[in-house]
């Protein structure tokens, strides 16, 4: 077991959680394995995975239309300045819609999915002990490079990387799961990593990151060819190792 931990689990946990790898509850790891294995139905069957063929964007759009058809409102790219609290209860938001001036809107409830340190700035009336909890949460960044290729990189959908010398911890080849015909015959590969926010992998440009990655891709496939296109998803709050909560905000650049 000690050898398995050193060779398999420790490198994977270090890749995901960095210096906090030994503070992660094994309930998190168990749940990850349980979710996949439970999709098999029977132990000897393969995992069952699903993906919306029209992308998750269509799922969000459909949900928005459903909300609006039932009398609700959906506002995207709205700027929230403050959560309004009255007599110890949430009363609404100070918000700017479509670039207009800030206004206070009354709401019965507010669901916040922002990083902990951002939530602290939005709700200034929080008790001191709770503010301290929010401030003490440590985040790792998330860096995801998307490659568009003219041929497969591997024959696998998901490849976990336990080699700490490689600048990514996961190789997810989407077109080994969804047929390349849905992507104009091209092959889509995601390269994931969770560096600290002061790690050069988070601060360098997309071109520099690609130049760093390519030599290591040739270790996986010696005849690796040119990249047709690339995209980068990055966030300063990609992973929270101490509370196992993740958020990802999107930025995109084209090559």
Structure description:
This protein folds into 2 domains: 1-30 and 138-255, Polyamine Oxidase, Chain A, domain 2 (Alpha-Beta Complex); 75-135, no CATH class. The protein contains 7 helices and 8 strands. It is of the alpha+beta class. 15% of the residues are buried. The protein is globular and about 65 Å long. Residues 243-255 have low confidence and may be disordered. A 5-stranded antiparallel β-sheet has the order 5-6-7-4-8.
List the helices and strands and how they pair.
Elements: H1 2-17, H2 26-38, H3 55-69, E1 79-86, E2 89-96, E3 103-106, H4 116-122, H5 128-135, E4 140-149, E5 158-160, E6 170-173, E7 187-193, H6 200-203, H7 206-220, E8 229-239
Antiparallel strand pairs: 1-2, 2-3, 4-7, 4-8, 5-6, 6-7
Short description:
By secondary structure, this protein is α+β, with helices and mostly antiparallel strands. Mean pLDDT is 85; it is low at 243-255.
What attributes does this structure have?
Polyamine Oxidase, Chain A, domain 2; alpha+beta; 255 residues; 5-stranded antiparallel sheet
| Low-confidence parts | 243-255
Series of secondary-structure elements, N-terminal to C-terminal: HHHEEEHHEEEEHHE
Mean pLDDT: 85
Give the strand order, joined by hyphens, for the main sheet: 5-6-7-4-8
Let me know the number of strands: 8
Q: Indicate the overall shape.
A: globular
Helical percent range?
25-40%
Percentage of residues in DSSP E strands: 15-25%
Biggest β-sheet strands, sense, barrel: 5 strands, antiparallel
Determine Rg (CA atoms, Å): 21 Å
CATH topology of the largest domain: Polyamine Oxidase, Chain A, domain 2
CATH architecture of the largest domain: Alpha-Beta Complex
- Determine the N-to-C terminus distance: 45 Å
Count every helix, treating DSSP H or I runs of 4 or more residues as helices: 7
Number of domains: 2
